[in-house]
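Many introductory courses stop at the sequence. We go one step further.
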Amino acid sequence: MIEINHLSMKFQHNRILDDINLTVAKGDVVAIIGSSGAGKSTLLRCLNRLEQPEHGELRINGQSFDLARLTRRELVRLRQQTAMVFQQFSLFQQKTALENVMEGLLVVKKYSRARAKEIALAQLRKVGMLARADYYPKQLSGGQQQRVGIARALAMAPQVLLLDEPTSALDPELVTEVLDVIKQAAQEGNTMLLVSHEMDFVRQVATRVLFLEQGKIIENGTEQQVFDNPVHERTKAFLARYNRRFEPEYVI
């Protein structure tokens, strides 16, 4: 069980997140949608403390984190519970795919090199990247780099996986291979918060959908509720163009 309580953030005079409260059950895949600038990516980055909010509490399986005031030890504990998949892959360019996946296991989890390598190889195999374990990021396509990024996140065995527009930097022909990996991770019961503009995919993988507008959750329901019967007028306007043309391009 994951709880987010009273999460707020502003930048200068702009309110980015406005009193976000959310409960996520184990195994939920919660998709966060909304217009550019609504605060979607900032929400994920605050949960992993890549951004520091004004205030807000995150509770993960009974552990409580004051996201505005974390000690170094608490930050390490938080990042042992969460893992992030970034828009731009964010791999270490001087490290191989295998070394990238091992890094968090060595630095954050404090595993032995042998144990870290064993886990990293297993995750690379799972995402179809074992044959390229010794390749450097510059030798990989964007889709391959993102699959390494997902393997890196899953290797940490996080309580919650945070995915920030994981396909936005990919050429269209590379999107499906990454969505396949995310779908597999969802089917394995991983708890996820997913920011995505791939509405067809959101409709098929999400157990819940949130619509964020000006830093507030204005819609919260099942995929069917939010897409087919939204309550808020802003949600209706945002989704109208997707609902008019909805014919799934990505089939599970």
